[in-house]
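Hi F.,

I've been meaning to write this up properly since the lab meeting, where we talked about keeping a consistent format for the predictions we share between groups. The idea is simple: the sequence comes first, exactly as it goes in, then the structure tokens exactly as they come out, then a line or two of notes. No screenshots and no reformatting. I'm using this chain as the first example so we have something concrete to point to.
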Amino acid sequence: MGDSSDFERFYSDLKETEKRDSVLTSKQQIDRLLRPGSTYLNLNPFEVLQIDPDTDVEAAKKKYKKLSLLIHPDKNTDDRERAERAFDVVKKAIKMIEDPDELAKCRETYTEARARLAIIMSEKRRKQKKNGQGDKIPEDEPAAYNKALWVVVTKVFADREKKRKMLEDRANEEKRRVAEEMLAAAEKRKREEEFAKNYEESRDERRGTWRQFMAKKAKKECEGKSLKGTAFKPPKIKLETSGK
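Output, unedited:
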């Protein structure tokens, strides 16, 4: 069984699923878009709009219009909060499909998923043959294959989103580090400028203080010299006379 025929069966089954889902009510569509695990499931715009990866943009827009009218918050006033969340999911999906680069990445995700599944199936087949169980595996059946492919596709989308967030977090951390360094440098310059300004403004005061200090010093030295130039006069000694 080649990859091409496998994927064709996947598309056929997906179209049958679309026919069944087309009769879902507004509430059921909102439930589908907000079901457990939707954080990762809704990364796949084709899954959100219930179209196959090869659907052209115009057909995708028609499906978007039909689905958005069904879940629009104004038509689900009794469940507006959930309807708004579901509506945002659908809007994000069509924006991805309308962006050529994003659309190409999404289609590449399916290519990668098919390649991963082929490796998984090959390894599973090899182990079965080794154990004498033949080379037929459950994924040879269309339903099992489609389920397995859906699981792998979802995982690849999740892996890519995790990688995107990791790179985004790393870039944000680098921006934060650079911003902190720039702020620290700016604060340092500000302190240096304030110091220089205060130093300049206090120059006259420092000069005046220095002059006063030198004047006092000179006065003391002068007074010291005056004391040295004065002759020392010893006290007169009065001789005592005896009464003899």
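Notes:
The chain has two domains: 22-98, 101-204.
The mean pLDDT is 84.

If this format works for you, I'll send the rest the same way.

G.
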